[in-house]
Amino acid sequence: MVERKKQMSRDRVSRLINWGHWFAFFNGLLAMIVGSRYLSSVGYPETWYGWIYLTVSTIGQFSFLAFIAYLICLFPLTLILPYSKILRGIAAVIATLSLCILLYDTIVYADYGMHLSPFAFDLAWADLNALLHGTSYIVTPLAIITLELTLANFLWKRIEKIQKLNLGNKVITLVGVCFISSHLIHIWADASDITEITRFDEAYPLAYPATARSFMESHGIDGSPLENNDNNTTSVLSYPLQPLLCQAETQTNVLMITIDSLRADMVDPKTMPFFHRYMENNQAFTEHYSGGNQFKTGMFSLLYGLQGSYGDARIFNSTSPVLTKSFQQAGYQLGLFIPETNRKLSSAQAMFNDFTPIVAKETNGSADADLQTVAHFKQWHSVQNKPWFALLNLKAPENFDTPVGFLGIETVKANLPPAQKVLFNQYRQSLYFIDNQLEAILANIPQDTLVVITGVNGKIFTSNSDEALRNLSPESVKVPLVIHWPNAIPAKVKYRTSHYGIVPTLMTHVLGCTNNTTDYSAGRSLLQPSKETWIYIGDSRIFAIYQQSEVTVIYRHGKYRIYDENYEHRLRKKMSAPELIQVMREGRRLYNH
């Protein structure tokens, strides 16, 4: 008798476990339906292999999530409370909560471009009224729990019939094959830089697709991206939002000089005497920030006028900046003078498409390349007979480099650790070299030429590339900006500005564009203070929000830290949600148009 009761108990538990597996599977299908909302944000595939990857990835990911939810929440209860009525009710509630969270995550992702995390939840909670409209937040959970209760009871009554069909192993095989295949396909796509596949990396929550590059590099295999020729595809991102209306009254020649790793606090009469005098005699912006701490994000913000979070958007593989396109359409000759490695570093493949490039070789270092760049520009400038726009990029400070035999300046004391002290003084030598090049470049430039000189990004004194990549302090992002306007009076601009304002300034005051600057940029004209009280600095993986009295650094997956305005002390406080909501909205504005 006791043995019979044990057998009946085991049979009941076994039946509940089978029912639980099928309940989890069908909830995985429901999760796939809800998860299809993510695709409205990232866009649908445009190739057959993209659709194959998305299909197997969707089946594998949401089935996996549903099974994990069952394993953690429902399976232990099956052993503790093996009573079908109680278990079906609890399962329906758990499934409803899970689907509601998933649905809420799709809303947050559409609005902010990130999945739920402590950071995203704080933002969403502060912005709850804007995210949830009408009575859907009441009706939807009621509809879901009704569906879940119906599904739970339906499966329980027919579990024996379902078992007789022997579909369990086939379903497990299908899900397993999809899950493994999605990771294998992603390894191939990551190694070959197939953006049609890798752009879905963060589309789904808790998705961590396998990658290949670190494995390949550790085994001495060339993991460099292969050329992806499939760039002529559309995107859900609109850039610009409206057709541009530009009509310049006069055609002013424009020279833009961008210097890698140029810190604002290092421009002084001893280190850069010529540039310091030039600042005094022109319009100098004393509180100016780059859009990033690296060449990719800094140059992207400079030429596109957009946040670095847009840098990975596929549209920019084929869409050049509206700034250069507008100069080209206005009849300007566009010249690009740049070191060979920097030309390949741009985050957007089409960033320099409108230029005629003249590339400097770096065989003997970046300082030697800069000498070539200056020589190339002088030769190009001497034969111009049409209006021109030239972009010069100098790189020596990035590598603390100077040419062989260069006679620099005296070293100075610095209150730094020994290793940083050496880099500090070598950096000053490099800046002094750059100062000489600026003087050489501007020696024969007519006064009626509009000249823009700025840093692509700042610099910290370290040889650790990972530390430099993650550091978003003012030393890494605060750069000088000087503009020489023909016939203008020298002035110092003390309100805060950023690279995002350079494109609107040139578009409005040089090319005569009448569009609202929000049609093509995240910035406003530099000639008046911006209404925004924040600046976005970084890319989509790690970025900082510079506010009036604090800096919030947000890492991937939503972890964040808050520092004082000088980046010296970490503040133990919650973030300022209203401003950060504006930031996240700006990062999605071109997608949501």
Unreliable parts? 214-235
Mean pLDDT: 87
Shape: elongated
Strand elements, count: 15
Oligomer: single chain
List the helices and strands and how they pair.
Layout: H1 2-35, H2 39-42, H3 48-80, H4 84-112, H5 118-126, H6 128-131, H7 136-157, H8 159-164, H9 168-192, H10 195-198, H11 213-218, E1 254-259, H12 273-280, E2 283-285, E3 288-289, H13 295-304, H14 322-329, E4 333-339, H15 340-345, E5 356-360, H16 366-382, E6 388-394, H17 418-442, E7 450-455, H18 465-470, H19 474-477, E8 481-484, E9 491-493, E10 497-498, H20 502-509, E11 535-538, E12 543-546, E13 550-554, E14 560-564, E15 570-571, H21 577-586, H22 589-592
Description:
- With 593 residues, the chain is of the alpha/beta class.
- The chain contains 22 helices and 15 strands.
- The chain has helices at residues 2-35, 39-42, 48-80, 84-112, 118-126, 128-131, 136-157, 159-164, 168-192, 195-198, 213-218, 273-280, 295-304, 322-329, 340-345, 366-382, 418-442, 465-470, 474-477, 502-509, 577-586, 589-592; strands spanning 254-259, 283-285, 288-289, 333-339, 356-360, 388-394, 450-455, 481-484, 491-493, 497-498, 535-538, 543-546, 550-554, 560-564, 570-571.
- Strands 5-4-6-1-7-8-2-9 form an 8-stranded mixed sheet, with helices on both faces. Strands 11-12-13-14-15 form a 5-stranded antiparallel sheet, with no helix packed on it. A two-stranded parallel ribbon has the order 3-10.
- α15 (340-345) links the parallel β4 and β5 (356-360).
- α1 (2-35) packs antiparallel against α3 (48-80).
- Residues 214-235 have low confidence and may be disordered.
